[in-house]
Amino acid sequence: MKKVLFVFALVAGIGAANAQVSSEPAPAAATESTQLQGDKVKIKAEELPQTVKKELEGEDYRGWLINAAYHDKTKNTYEVELKNGAETKTVKFDKEGKKVD
């Protein structure tokens, strides 16, 4: 009888210890950031349309280097992160190479 009570107490103790462990749900912020990006995918600078490349070679962007490039498939726009020394900026273009806001 003592063995049965001991086993029962042991099982109950293990059950109580495991009941305290909870799995945390995924943070809402991570889910939102994924949704905000939509169909934006990172691409290589060489994959930018020729019209966008030509615009980036213009006077407005002289001295700036392409740090990263993205294609938003939903809006069919291109987002280019530029870097000039310690300064960075992001510019968006449509497929025709025109700057969009």
What does this structure look like?
Residues 1-19 form the signal peptide. This is Peptidase propeptide and YPEB domain-containing protein. The chain has helices spanning 2-19, 28-37, 50-56, and strands at residues 40-43, 65-72, 77-84, 87-94, 99-100. It is α+β, with helices and mostly antiparallel strands and 101 residues long. The protein has a single domain, classed as Nuclear Transport Factor 2, Chain: A (Roll). Strands 1-2-3-4-5 form a five-stranded antiparallel beta sheet, with no helix packed on it. It is rod-shaped, with a radius of gyration of 27 Å.
Task: Give the strand line-up of the largest sheet.
Answer: 1-2-3-4-5
Task: Give the class-level CATH name.
Answer: Alpha Beta
* Span between termini: 78 Å
Tally of alpha and pi helices: 3
Residues in β-strands, percent: 25-35%
> H/E series, N to C?
HHEHEEEE
Per the CATH scheme, the topology name is: Nuclear Transport Factor 2, Chain: A
Q: What is the correct CATH architecture?
A: Roll
Q: Give Rg in angstroms.
A: 27 Å
Mean pLDDT: 82
Number of domains: 1
Structural class, from secondary structure content?
alpha+beta
Helicity level, as a percent range? 25-40%
Helices and strands, with pairings:
Elements: H1 2-19, H2 28-37, E1 40-43, H3 50-56, E2 65-72, E3 77-84, E4 87-94, E5 99-100
Antiparallel strand pairs: 1-2, 2-3, 3-4, 4-5
Question: What's the gist of this structure?
Answer:
This protein is of the alpha+beta class. The protein has helices at 2-19, 28-37, 50-56, and strands at 40-43, 65-72, 77-84, 87-94, 99-100.
